[in-house]
Amino acid sequence: MHVLDLAFFLPAVAVSGVQLLRRHPLGYATAAGQLVFLALTCLPIVVTPVVAALRGHDPAWAVVMPVGVVFAVTIAVLARTLRGLTLGRTPRTRNSTAGVAGQ
User: Fold this and answer.
1) Do the beta carbons of residue 23 and residue 65 sit within 8 Å?
2) Which of 10, 56, 57, 91 is the most buried (most CB within 10 A)?
3) Residues whose CB is less than 8 angstroms from the CB of residue 34 and which lie 6 or more positions away in sequence, other chains included
4) Cβ atoms < 10 Å from Cβ of 71
5) In angstroms, what CA-CA distances link 96 with 29, 42, 87, 103?
C-alpha cells in the first residue's frame, strides 16, 4: 500500500520542492497538501505496533521512533506553514511588482 502512495507522492514532492526553491506559486499551492499527506502516511506506521501489542502480536517497535520523528517534524512544519498564511495574500515571487514604490 505505501509503495503505491510513495511511487506517486515522492516525485510530486520533488517537483514541489524545486518550485518552492524557485518561489513559484505552484510550490506554495501544493506544499500544505503534501505535508498533510505525509503526516497521514506516517500515522498508521506509528499506530500499527501499538495495535499489534494490544492484540497480543509481536510488534515491530523499531519503526516507531524514526517515523514518529518524521511525523512530529511534518506536523511542526505544517503548523508553521499554515500559521503564515493570510486570506487573500499571495507569496511574492521574483517577478512580482507588488509593494514596489511608484507602481
Assistant:
1) no
2) 91
3) 9, 12, 13, 16
4) 19
5) 17, 37, 18, 11
Place of cell 512580482: 96
Amino acid residing at 28: Y
pLDDT tens for each residue of 36-68: 999 998 999 999 999 999 999 999 899 899 999
CA atoms in the 13 A half-sphere facing the CB of 89: 9
Contact (CB, 8 A) for 13 and 34: yes
> What is this structure's pTM?
0.70
Cα separation, 89 vs 43, whole angstroms: 31
